[in-house]
Design a protein that fits this description.
The complex is a heterodimer of chains A (313) and B (427). Chain A is of the alpha+beta class. Chain A is built from ten helices and nine strands. Chain A has helices at residues 2-14, 52-65, 117-121, 148-152, 179-183, 187-191, 202-215, 256-268, 272-292, 304-312; strands at 38-43, 93-98, 103-108, 127-129, 136-138, 159-160, 169-170, 197-201, 235-238.
């Protein structure tokens, strides 16, 4: 607890702040995962499915995140908030996964990837990963609503408000402008009474995850989800079942954004290729025109404006 | 640029097809109003798993490829130096202009927060890692280039036109609504003089704009392929490959040549003009080179990545893949093995079928990449809603309508030589 508070103090003192921090802009090559970033650990074996985290998230973030209460079909009197999926109204959800013998709860929310695809995809920097906290934030004042982030996200996390005429993207931002700012922790972690959601630095939480697995190997599937997946995520999972059984996609260790940026940057490095292409094509076209001699009333040279101007003088 | 190569199409502007198209335009526009009042979900079946529907897959990804006629013919004329195709240029540029206009219009309908689109022009918001950023800026720049490329035709008409329609319109109006006829006619003279001043100056530097019009599509058509590179877990391995940019580029070029043939035959038919047989037969000879290279890259890449099995597994996706290959392959095969423009293989009917097959095949490829091969998992599904389709139909109709009107007002189509197609065809 102490470390976290001092961490925030340093942030405030250096004036970086959370919201106003400068852009990450780090282009290619996945760096080593930054373990000092803020993170969450979800322990599916401890989760009791009370959904207090969902309620807390909605209570805290409704206004800042444009969330809404979701009414179930059976619930005519609107007694409960009952989202069935992550949507443009809910940022986090607890789901139950079960087959004949086994079952497990699982929490779904933004994974805050170390190398997020949504940030790489967004054409106008509306998705932005804070280089200090590692929080992937969304700015509705910049967003154009193209939904490329949704295409890019391998976890299908960003959600769009399809039923609104001023829609925005909805996803977890670790309560950056609400609970994290006011109380130094996320609303879901604060609300969890079972110790299933922990908030802290990524390195500490990784250690804690491995400690839990080592202490009770029979209880856990022997891996931490998010430690290496697509270059590492800041939302980590440990569970009693294999992760594909609780709805987490099986992913490689390389961030897709790294590969796609590499191709794009190879083509457009220093804008050299397009300029060279233009210059080359110009040379060919002008030569062709001179050779034909009849295409134009006066075959023009490299700088057709110059002759014109001197004629005027 | 010699303006005597082109001519206007004679005929009434308010024809029957005008009103049919207008009906579709009005339906589409009213649905667009619904979309802006009640949100995208009210008119479309797009969802969080399939955030891009036909507005992107057809209007943008396929529509701009169909609009590559201007690009493909410009390569032929100005780079390969086949000036004999120059008469095709103007109509190609006009259809490209409308095609890109259609894409831009659809994007503004599709964007959730279009009022923020000005962020593309703020350097502080530029995101150079984003493929879409590159595509967006490039497409916008290219639309401007197309407009400038077409400007001489408009200036020429402004200058040389006798303004018959306009004068008739003024006569038709109640005298009280036309305040000062003489002043208006005076203004017209000044417009004519201005157009006459600007046109030769513009035409002198036009070649540099035209070459820009070759560079920009090379950039953004390949980037349209790069767009899906970031989703390797969602796009099926049959289509997700580092070769996507190259494949999209070649695909755009052969679709560009095909649409030139397709459109030339259609407009000859519907405006009852002679076929541009020599030109389109020549263009058709260029196509197989590109399609063959494209197919070789597709299969070579599949073999390299060990996905040939998936291509012939005969499941749902493999059939779509084979459809794309068979359509393009058959279309190209029909073009092969003929010498000379008088060969029966170069008959307009035959060319039309080939071009149509290649166009459909190329479009299926783009749909495969953007929609059919795209699987977000978790049981998402997407099929466009009627309203969504009608919005696309409305925008396409608007494009056709604009083309129909403009070819009658501005000299766009090549000057006719030879006999018109048989009257019976034009029933």
């Amino acid at each position: 607890m102490q470390t976290r508070r001092s961490f925030f103090k340093t942030l405030g003192a250096t004036g970086t702040g959370f919201v106003g921090a400068t852009t990450s802009a780090s282009a290619s090559s996945t760096p080593e995962a930054d373990n000092s970033q803020l993170a969450m650990l979800y322990d599916a074996t401890r989760c009791i499915g009370c959904k207090a985290c969902m309620a807390a998230c909605k209570r805290v973030n409704t206004r800042a995140g444009a969330l809404e209460v979701e009414q179930a079909a059976f619930d005519e009197d609107a007694l409960w908030d009952a989202p069935a999926e992550l949507s443009g109204k809910s940022r986090t959800i607890i789901k139950l996964h079960r087959d004949e013998e086994e079952w497990s709860f699982v929490k779904q929310s933004c994974m805050h990837c170390q190398k997020p695809s949504c940030v790489s995809a967004c054409p106008v920097k509306a998705m932005h990963k804070d280089p200090v906290t590692g929080i992937v934030q969304y700015s509705r004042d910049t967003c154009i609503g193209c939904r490329y982030c949704q295409i890019a996200c391998p976890f299908n996390i960003p959600k769009f408000q399809w039923d609104k005429n001023n829609p925005q993207i909805v996803k977890c931002d670790m309560c950056i402008s609400t609970n994290l700012r006011d109380k130094g922790t996320t609303a879901c972690a604060e609300a969890c009474s079972a110790g299933a959601i922990l908030f802290g630095r990524r390195g500490d939480l990784l250690k804690e995850a491995h400690r839990r697995i080592e202490r009770k190997p029979s209880r856990y599937y022997p891996k931490v989800y998010g430690e290496h997946e697509i270059g590492g995520t800041n939302h980590l999972y440990i569970a009693g079942l294999p992760f594909e059984k609780i709805g987490l996609p099986t992913l490689g260790t390389e961030a897709p954004a790294t590969a796609s940026e590499e191709i794009q940057h190879t083509i457009y490095k220093g804008f050299f290729a397009p300029v060279a292409l233009y210059a080359g094509l110009c040379a060919v076209a002008v030569r062709n025109m001179r050779r034909n001699g009849n295409g134009d009333p006066e075959p023009s040279g490299e700088d057709p404006g110059a002759a014109d101007e001197s004629a005027k003088r | 640029m010699s303006h005597h190569e082109y001519q206007k199409v004679e005929g009434r502007i308010f024809s029957r097809s005008f009103f049919i198209l207008l009906t579709f335009v009005l339906i589409g526009m009213s649905l667009i109003v619904v979309r802006f009042v009640k949100g995208i979900g009210a008119v479309s079946n797009m969802n969080d798993g399939y955030p891009w529907g036909i507005w992107i897959a057809y209007d943008v990804a396929t529509g701009t490829a169909i609009a590559c006629g201007g690009y493909a013919v410009a390569i032929l004329v100005y780079i390969r130096n086949h000036m004999r195709y120059h008469p095709l240029m103007r109509s190609c540029i006009l259809t490209s202009l409308f095609g890109y206009g259609l894409a831009g219009f659809s994007v503004m309908v599709d964007l959730g927060r279009p009022w923020n689109a000005y962020n593309f022009f703020l350097p502080s918001k530029w995101q150079f890692n984003s493929v879409m950023f590159e595509v967006a800026l490039c497409v916008m720049a290219y639309s401007m280039v197309l407009l400038i490329e077409f400007l001489p035709a408009i200036l020429y008409s402004l200058e040389k036109s006798k303004w018959v329609r306009f004068r008739r319109f003024m006569d038709w109006l109640h005298p009280r609504l036309v305040p000062d006829k003489k002043a208006v006619l005076d203004k017209i003279e000044r417009v004519q003089a201005g157009a006459g001043w600007l046109r030769p100056r513009l035409e002198k530097i036009l070649i540099f704009i035209i070459v820009l019009g070759i560079t920009l599509p090379t950039m953004h058509q390949s980037s349209l392929g790069s767009m899906l590179l970031i989703a390797p877990t969602k796009l099926h391995p049959l289509w997700h490959t580092p070769m996507l940019p190259l494949l999209f580029l070649i695909n755009a070029i052969f679709m560009g040549y095909s649409i030139v043939i397709f459109e030339s035959i259609i407009s000859s038919y519907s405006f009852n003009r002679p076929y541009e047989s020599r030109e389109i037969a020549g263009v058709s000879r260029v196509i197989p080179g590109f399609t063959v290279v494209w197919m070789l890259v597709v299969f070579g890449d599949l073999a390299y990545r060990g996905q040939l099995g998936a291509a012939f597994s005969m499941d749902h996706l493999s059939l779509w893949f084979l459809a794309q290959m068979v359509l393009v392959g058959t279309g190209s095969f029909l073009l092969l093995g003929a010498r000379g423009p008088s060969s029966p293989r170069r008959s307009p009917r035959r060319l039309f079928i080939s071009a149509a097959l290649i166009l459909v095949g190329g479009a299926v490829y783009r749909f495969n990449v953007y929609l059919i091969g795209f699987d977000p998992g978790q049981g998402w599904s997407y099929f466009p809603s009627l309203a969504e389709i009608m919005i696309t139909v409305g925008i396409v109709s608007l494009e056709l309508l604009g083309y129909l009107v403009l070819v009658k007002m501005v000299p766009v189509l090549p000057k006719a030589h030879g006999a018109p197609p048989l009257q019976t065809q034009n029933a």
